[in-house]
Design goal:
The complex is a heterodimer of chains A (157) and B (169). Chain A is α+β, with helices and mostly antiparallel strands and 157 residues long. Chain A has two domains: 42 residues; 84 residues, Alpha-Beta Plaits, CATH 3.30.70.920. Chain A has a four-stranded antiparallel beta sheet. In chain A, helix 2 packs across helix 3. Chain A is elongated and about 55 Å long. Chain A starts with a helix and ends in a 7-residue tail after the last strand. In chain B, helix 2 packs across helix 3. Chain B is elongated. Chain B starts with 24 loop residues before the first helix and ends in a 9-residue tail after the last strand. Classes of the chains: A alpha+beta (157), B alpha+beta (169). The interface between A and B is large, with 76 and 80 residues. Strand 3 of chain A pairs antiparallel with strand 6 of chain B, so a sheet runs across the interface.
């Protein structure tokens, strides 16, 4: 990371300025040039520090009210290969391998799916189940019933 | 004669929603296009607006409105916390229903807790703690365990699989 990056991250934590020249506005706030702001944002995009620049819609407001965390117990020697395939399904928003918490929690693959109805989310889970095939020993789907807190990650103090 | 109430744009799907109007067609197009990226040039709104057949100030105003009414939760660079030296870990607890709201308050009181969701499972509370170091995340979980007397199950990411999601608005 460049010395400018923490300042830039802090300045954009609440979002991009809604001014015709947002990068110039940021430059003014942190005391550098517009070209430097654009260069650092490009560099952070290339390095994967920024996933993308854009909008994040509220799933619920778009009608995606069935947000299911599908969880799977997948054979350890297949989970990485299959996790990659699950991540490529168009309705999966996050896909991770995580440790099991035995005996209560046998699942090691997590994939978030988003449907307008629970039936749609279940159909998506069935597509994942088909893809996993014999490598999957157990499955479940956990729907979020309430958002208790959502502040986003605070990245810089 | 046409009934003036017919075809009204108001539709209540979510009674808690502050946004009771159906999304305008233009808002859908803005959301669909700007999920995949935003230009890095001197007049990025002007450039993005062109592709949407809008003018610059209309696009700026629409984005502001969509943020204000909660249709968008964020607009700007989306940072990958895992690439920034910080740590963030998913965790879950089994919370007795009669204490659920009180425990949610105890958990949420920690500034390290970035999100917290109720889910319909024996493990019924799922939250993410984010902090500058893994030790600070662990400390947060230990304090939550001490305060609530409940076990915090840690589910750190072992591997993230690439995804490319666009929710169609």
């Amino acid at each position: 990371m460049d010395a400018l990056d923490p300042l830039l991250i802090k300045a954009t934590q609440a979002g991009l300025p809604l001014t015709p020249t947002p990068y110039a506005t940021l430059a003014e706030q942190i005391g550098c040039t517009e070209a430097e702001v654009m260069a650092r944002l490009t560099a952070m995009l290339d390095a994967g520090i920024i996933r993308r620049i854009g909008v994040v819609p509220n799933h619920y407001r778009l009608g995606y009210t069935a947000n299911g965390m599908t969880v799977w117990d997948v054979a350890d020697d297949r989970v990485d290969e299959l996790g990659n395939a699950v991540g490529q399904l168009p309705f999966v928003s996050h896909c991770y391998r995580r440790p099991r918490a035995l005996p209560d929690w046998p699942y090691n693959l997590f994939a978030m799916v988003h449907g307008h109805t629970r039936a749609e989310a279940l159909a998506q889970a069935d597509i994942i189940a088909n893809l996993l095939g014999q490598a999957c020993r157990a499955r479940d789907i956990l729907y979020s019933t309430r958002i208790l807190k959502k502040t986003g990650l605070r990245l810089v103090d | 004669m046409r009934c003036p109430l017919r075809g009204t744009p108001f539709r209540r799907r979510d009674p808690d929603s502050r946004l009771n109007t159906v999304l305008q067609e233009i808002d859908r197009r803005i959301i669909n296009q700007l999920q995949s990226g935003f230009p890095l040039c001197e007049r990025p709104y002007e450039s993005a607006a062109k592709a949407l057949n809008l003018n610059e100030s209309d696009l700026i105003n629409r984005i502001g409105l969509l943020l204000e009414n909660g249709t968008l939760t964020r607009f700007g660079p989306l940072y990958n916390a895992d690439r920034m030296g910080g740590a963030n870990v998913l965790a879950a607890m089994t919370v007795p229903l009669e204490r659920f709201d009180a425990v949610a308050e105890q958990v949420n009181a920690h500034p390290e807790i970035a999100h917290n969701y109720a889910r319909d499972h024996a493990l019924n509370m799922w939250f993410v703690a984010a902090a500058p170091t893994p030790e600070a995340v662990e400390h947060t979980f230990c304090r939550i365990e001490a305060e609530t007397g409940l076990t915090v199950h840690r589910f750190p990411k072992e591997r993230e699989f690439f995804v490319e999601l666009k929710l169609t608005a």
